[in-house]
Amino acid sequence: MEDTTRPNPDELLEQIKKTEQKEKKGKLKIYLGMCAGVGKTFSMLQDASKAHGRGTDVLIGYVETHGRAETEFLLFYMPQLPRKKISYKGFELEEMDVDTILEKKPKLVVVDELAHTNAPGSRHNKRYLDVLELLDNGINVYTAINVQHIESLADTVSQITGIIIKETVPDSIFDIADEIELVDISPDELIQRLSDGKVYTADKAKDAVENFFRKGNLSALRELSLRLAADRVDRQVRDYMQENRIPGPWKSTQRILIGIGPNPNSSDLVRWARRIAYTMEASWVAVHVDTPIQLNEKQKLSLNNNLDLARELGAEVVITSDIDVVKGIIRIAKNENATHIVVGKSQNRNLFSKIFKTDIVNRILDESGKIDVYVVSGDTETVDEQKKFRLPAAQSDISKYIISSCLIFLVAAICYPFSDILGHQTVALILLLVVSLLPLIMGPGPVLLAAILSPMIWNYFFVPPKFTLWISKSEDILTFIMFFIIAYVTGVLTTRIRQREKAIRQREERAVALYNLANDLSKAINLDEVVKESVKNFKKVFHSEAVIFLKEEDTALLKQVIDNQAENIPEKEFSVAEWVCANGKRAGKFTDSLPFAEYVYYPIKGPRGIYGSAGIKFANEVQFGEQEALIENFVNQVGSAVERELLNKTAGKTLILEESEKLYKTLFDSISHELKTPIAAIMAASSYLTQMKGGDKDTRTDIYNEISTASIRLNRLVENLLDMARLESGKLVVNLSACDVQDLINGALNQFGTEIGTRKINIDIPENMPFVKVDFVLIEQVLKNIIQNALLYTPAGAGIDIKVSFDNEYSYIFISDNGPGIPEKGIEHIFEKFYRVDNKTAGGTGLGLSISKGIIEAHKGTITVVNKKSGGLKFQIKIPK
Amino acid sequence: MSEPNSILVIDDEVQIRRLLRISLEDSGFTVHEAENAKRGLQESANCRPSLILLDLGLPDEDGLILLKKLREFVETPVIILSVRNSEKDIITALDSGANDYITKPFNTGELLARIRACLRSYQPEQKTSVYINGNIQIDFSAHEVKNKERIVKLTSTEFSLLALFIRNAGKVMTHQYILKEVWGKPFSDEIQYLRVYIAQLRKKFEDDPSRPKIFITESGIGYRMLIQE
Asked: Which domain holds residue B189?
């Protein structure tokens, strides 16, 4: 049997990762209280002052004392940060100065009132976002909050106290917190404190006791806060057990799925799901199924709010398109391996759905299979509301209505003269035809109008008795009713088909957009192209300006990657992009963080981290939902592409490294050989000289010559090595000046003393040879190296030919020896470092030709080598004029 | 007055100093040694040598700085003897007042030749207006130039150039220096002018202009007129 008591390695790894992440981040301690006046600020400051006493670098970021003397007394000791003044609509508001804190980087910052909403124009809309940024920068934070400000509890508190709570903090902040301290006093004591005037001034206190601080309220709030703290402790215990391999119930693999609609009440459902997920230790997914049914602006807004809420509360949000809500939910539930589905209970089910159980809840129950279903009260009007909107009347503008009615009148008018010939039944069919064709060009509203209008007109103008709505014949009554029904049904059905078609088209467009992006990105061969293609696709799909910032490889600074159409991005945008990159969260216009920006920025994430940020300049408020999902898909694609390119780069580097390792080995072997040979000669010769007794003069001279030759060889090797190093360092500067080729060749030849010996050097320079524009010293060096090579292979008595010529674009120098030449296969390797033909050592350094090639290439010229037909090797140098 | 034929070697390498002492003394010079810049400065004041061999890489101070200090109070010829072999270093040293420059490793024979050339060219201004170097004879008062006893016609620029060379025979002159002296400051970057005129002079004075023996190219630095024996 499998040992289920042992934590799985992935979980342990996660644990380690969590700890590691936490170590880099600052530690967060939250002082939780049931309501104002329990002494959170006081306890917090007490702890801070203790830390201060121990020598910790403490800074009071923002504390509100409410004039309480004992609290103010504590503040007296510690350094306080002056508040930042922000003027807004004539008021001067005071906020915490986040920038200065980040600059000062204290060890610990005290920030009161975590749920506070910042003044407009601040860096973040909410103070808890400020706190998160401080933590990200490695600063420890003490903060305080009342239980009613916690997102998932806000509703409950509202229900208990009857007070709507606007300022909330997402529950996830508790997951981040390293420590939570519950500041608890009994309700009686609190009421006592209130009446003692310790919390509010006497007149305010009385008011407060009567309204909010009723004993019943306080008890309920206290229970909430105690329960929250207990939950947390429970979780800590479990974590501890897991870390220390204490057998017990491990983290569940439960996954909760919740369906979200545009109903404003859905928020309760979301909060409920979050609580359930928290207690079950389950992950949770919020799903919205986008159906062909159009939502109005209000519904869209409400849907966005619900989705945002779910995101804030830590849900993974999935948006999918489906014609049927239930099918969509079930599909996602299966994909996501959900173990539980949470849906709201329908409140106004109609008789039809009651009998046939066609309402959402029942259908989900039927189709969910093994998945548990929770039905919670208070939602799912979504569906019913959506049903109402199956026949939306106000979607088209007024002109369409006029056109559709006119059309009906027109057709009726054309038919009118022929009504006697055609018979009024035929006219009915003609009108019906018009109505059934209308949906092709009109929205549902105008079609419906036509469907209602046309039987009326028919009845009035064509059915005897004419010009009345009275119908005399019974079959005409039947026709009228059938006409009405057919017109209505045709109109509605066609409209629905068209709506579906539209939904499918939209989905297809999104798929195509994604496909295009993926396709373009896959073709991009470097980082610049990835960026260029991304910007192009962003612009095309979102019809907005787009910009991409990428981290610089070494400095991790952001760099805007500019294509020539990109507008100049102001400095402040840079800082927003940087913030997004550093924090890995969406920010900018229309968001909660840094909303003063012109663009909305999304982090470009890959599996290995954040590579930069992408900004989109939307003209209108961002439509979250499908649009948002598309953006995220886009950004993810870009992230993968960027990562791919970076990995390619790394792979390239590794290859170069391997290559250079090999080279290093060759270099090392060759150099040690080349260095030691002449040293050996010098040592042998000189040691012999010292012990030589008398000896004849010739032998002595021979030995001296050996020393001299070895020294020259040694010196040449060292010079070559230095040249090579200079060449490879990239520091080589080519100083072009007009040079006399004759001078160059002489210079090269002058470096050889006795080495030329009996070999004949033939130089052929045309009379009218112009000056060549080269670096004198470097080209002289090239000629020297090639002549050196030629000398090595040319036997005594044979000649070396140097020929110079020119045309309109290039100057040419040919140097040929009369040696044995080299095997054809060696030709392509001859310019490689330490390459030797057949491993023969001829006394060269193995570097000269390689250096020559480097120098000629620095001159934008070429150097090649061929075997002469008559034997011997011919070097050809070509340098642009 | 400086001690005749005495040479001060300023170099931190004992082996080089020892080797130079052996070869220089063997050639009839008196040798003084200094192992760092500080001692070098003292010695050059104390023993007033007729020539200084200076290494640039000294332990306590860069040789170039020492050279500048030396130039503040003495005109003694200085030959740089250094491993630094880039044209930039050489030009800088020459511009800072060095009379010649030899890179290590060096050929002792060549070093001795340069020392002799340096000492000779440093002779105080001759009273006569006639300069002779090998077959070339230039009479400043008559504005007349002869090669192998035959009068050679020169343009005025060629004359100025030759005059400059012959006055500084044996000494390396940088491109910039020659251009400044002959053409004036604004032309000091127009090396190709110089190349053209050097070619002219070679045609007129060298036995084989393609194998010059008088007007030698010092690659990347400038030119030198060899002292003809």
From this structure: 130-225
